[in-house]
Amino acid sequence: MNDVQNYSDKRGISVDQVGVWDIEYPVTVKGRASGSQNTVASVDMTVQLLPQFKGTHMSRMVEILNRVRGEITMANIPQILSSMRTSLDSPQAVISLRFPYFIEKKAPVSASPSLFPVSVLFSGFSDSTGGDSFILGVRVPVTTLCPCSKEISVSGAHNQRSFVTVYITFKDFVWIEDVVETIEKSSSSEIYPLLKRGDEKAVTEKAYENPVFAEDVVRNVSEKLSADANIRWFMVETLHLESIHTHNAYARVERFKDRAFVLEEHLRMFKGFPRI
Amino acid sequence: MNDVQNYSDKRGISVDQVGVWDIEYPVTVKGRASGSQNTVASVDMTVQLLPQFKGTHMSRMVEILNRVRGEITMANIPQILSSMRTSLDSPQAVISLRFPYFIEKKAPVSASPSLFPVSVLFSGFSDSTGGDSFILGVRVPVTTLCPCSKEISVSGAHNQRSFVTVYITFKDFVWIEDVVETIEKSSSSEIYPLLKRGDEKAVTEKAYENPVFAEDVVRNVSEKLSADANIRWFMVETLHLESIHTHNAYARVERFKDRAFVLEEHLRMFKGFPRI
Amino acid sequence: MNDVQNYSDKRGISVDQVGVWDIEYPVTVKGRASGSQNTVASVDMTVQLLPQFKGTHMSRMVEILNRVRGEITMANIPQILSSMRTSLDSPQAVISLRFPYFIEKKAPVSASPSLFPVSVLFSGFSDSTGGDSFILGVRVPVTTLCPCSKEISVSGAHNQRSFVTVYITFKDFVWIEDVVETIEKSSSSEIYPLLKRGDEKAVTEKAYENPVFAEDVVRNVSEKLSADANIRWFMVETLHLESIHTHNAYARVERFKDRAFVLEEHLRMFKGFPRI
Amino acid sequence: MNDVQNYSDKRGISVDQVGVWDIEYPVTVKGRASGSQNTVASVDMTVQLLPQFKGTHMSRMVEILNRVRGEITMANIPQILSSMRTSLDSPQAVISLRFPYFIEKKAPVSASPSLFPVSVLFSGFSDSTGGDSFILGVRVPVTTLCPCSKEISVSGAHNQRSFVTVYITFKDFVWIEDVVETIEKSSSSEIYPLLKRGDEKAVTEKAYENPVFAEDVVRNVSEKLSADANIRWFMVETLHLESIHTHNAYARVERFKDRAFVLEEHLRMFKGFPRI
């Protein structure tokens, strides 16, 4: 049986990325408090295809994923990328996983426990000469209360569910929970899956005391990440599902501390989370 | 060339619905204030397939849609359904269109004009013996402010963007704008694409003066539609993008004044708007 | 602190459903081959609200969900519904969970193993007088190859990814895997996450030997489910992402063997899977 | 009434982008064959916020959009961007519009006419010193038939709906229709909303004669755009809804002919189409 993918190609065009997208896959992820947790990821895997080959062998990517099943961590992504480059004879490889991650929360007054879902993204990139790059993405829903609405209104102030997304590269390990905390402290109030009446009062009042514009949210996050020497690059975005408008409010800040080639290449291929 | 669809089928099974889904199509819709407006619909068309036929002829549905291009109204849907039944030799036909519809709004204080998008659904059904049925669906974003949060908190109250959806059948013509108004008056406040500072103050204060639970929204709408003799059946749903929770709040009321066979059949095939 | 939800309401309108939607939650589900598996569900929980109450207590629904964490099965859904009715003083309750479920598959020639994701829905309903009802939903991607295209073309035939969805009520227990098998055998060919070259040849040739229209898929499934005395009601839908068209093809068959009141009520509240 | 947005900010952090997202808006777009056509866009507008300001004035963006209503073309986007920079006192502005665009097609044998929907994106960027940049994006559904499956199988070959997306910058004007044609000629076959039996035979056979991998599609497009001196930068992506797999195949090629500062800045803010 012919290996059509191995045929040679005469067009002399390398393909920046080719591979499999949107593989639904059960994974185990390490959490700070909970040891490890089981969740379900959407996985993309691609490699660069050199000009001389007609095609890549996508089934090998799925085989590599199968071999590490149940153990995808920030720590073993470099090995997965190395396997991809070797198995597919490629100078560059990318893998990204997006998955819900659950954090145990206690309501602020009643201490009622509940499971808070955030969205997490792992994106790894490897280049045969430039080395490896890893981006951690975390998206967290929060409350934001409008400073202008509060100041000009006799009572009340419009507030809404907002999604704050942080992407970072770093030198040493970072816990997902720490990024969540950075985001929540930059908003009007963190939110919860379960609130009893006393908790609802506390969250309402806290949000009213801490009004923030979209601009404030990204500046608050930015200030913390800029001051943290462990963070080498970051991008923070916020999207507010405005309660007084039909459209959304958006803000973004991105800062480089390094301009490493490997990061620049990684960002060319980096998709982030889907739009909300 | 053989007409495979016309082959006979031996299994003796009628197919309740078969046809084309998700056709993106430019349409012209009549509005109360604006004469007619141009928009883009997502169109589904299906017929019942009798047991003796192997398949329907889906291209004929697209041809029928092409013939009426630019003129899809509540008034000519019966003709479209009649063409579908005749052309496809079928006792039942359904067509549904979902499209954004724009309403000119003036901000409450500054009177600044803007275009407010709502979602509209036309669903027509025709049965060879039972006659025709038409369902109008309208989905409108509003603000809802929580009565409990207001009452128990020293200041402020959580509020959020909510989507209220009304489906109705009726005897005489109903304007989309009238359904929008019914919905907006059942919420804490209507919302706008464009608000200057004075408007923002007015909307914030109005919402604070009119707190509603999800339960209140659907009861408020229900009370109006129940009292309107022109309405023969309705369903109202609301979905609140809770600003203090990660999940949504939902409520629904449905009431029949008639139990017409044709409506019951229509509802078996009725999909409504997609989930938000 | 006042319990605003407990205030009385004067409008005399019962709310058919009110509750929480779209809770993201980790669950453990029993599988035939795999013992139990961990996955993540999207959960909706609602109750009927009697006319005399102003509101329901949504936080109690989340508490009930927390109490059974990790153990949501077809078997314990009646207890969850019973807790909901008791805790919220309601004659009716509904819970639905939608989650990806993974099946170990072996490729047809190479026997390479892989994890095949299908979508599963559990919907439970309970009525104080009518009793309980349970609907199982399973959505499976398959290949469908067009009989007309095959017959009229010199070579080749258009085929595409299609999603077949089956909803059933039943007397005795049904395995998710059995519904998947019924669906796959009604299509041109089952599909796989991992195929080596010999497998790809086998799947391509099998699909070419088994052309089916959308009409055939739903009739094939319908024939099997109609003949199965354990099945009391079913609905089967198929959506074909046509490879020669921009729109999709759709077909649906629904059959009742019982017309139980509790099923009819359940269906009024039943949303099924979201549209693809 | 205080202008809270105009308050000064002490953190010294400029915000790269802040503004309004997801405005649904009716627009009129010029087409080659059809004069102009009416459609509905999703619009994002953002500006850079200088460190000294607390917030931007989002309502002014909506006002600017209102002023040009019905006339958004590649030609007047620079004026919109200029108004945004002036009105919001900002060195940088971005506007992007995504909308369905309809092309009249005739079926290949019967010449039956129909309206073919493609997705179009206009993204304009303006920098006070670097000047203006414009990216045109076009996403087109096509058929792709697998060369490997064809070669190794006795008969048939798996094929599927694929979405090819091209983003370009250029010196002189480019018609949307020309980009669509480039994409369609790079696939196994263009597809149609309406095909009679003879047309279906023609499309099936054409696809069978022109098998392409994802790699081939992006290389075919790449070859044409690289040879076109009018094109200054491009990115081409393809996503195949594999008919034999549950996941998708993906490929991407990006090439720069210029490395203009303004393009590099624009790409930092460029989101492209949402994932399929």
In words, what does this structure look like?
The structure is a homotetramer of 276-residue chains. Chain A is of the alpha+beta class and 276 residues long. The first copy, chain A, has a single domain (10-270), classed as Urate Oxidase (Roll). Chain A has seven helices and nine strands; from the N terminus they run ββααβββαβαβααββα. The first copy, chain A, has helices spanning 58-67, 77-87, 147-152, 176-184, 197-209, 214-227, 261-269, and strands spanning 15-31, 35-49, 92-106, 113-127, 131-145, 159-170, 189-190, 231-240, 248-256. In chain A, α1 (58-67) packs antiparallel against α2. Chain A is elongated, with a radius of gyration of 21 Å. The model of chain A has no long low-confidence stretch (mean pLDDT 95). The interface between A and C is medium-sized, with 29 and 29 residues. β1 (15-31) of chain A pairs antiparallel with β9 of chain D, so a sheet runs across the interface.
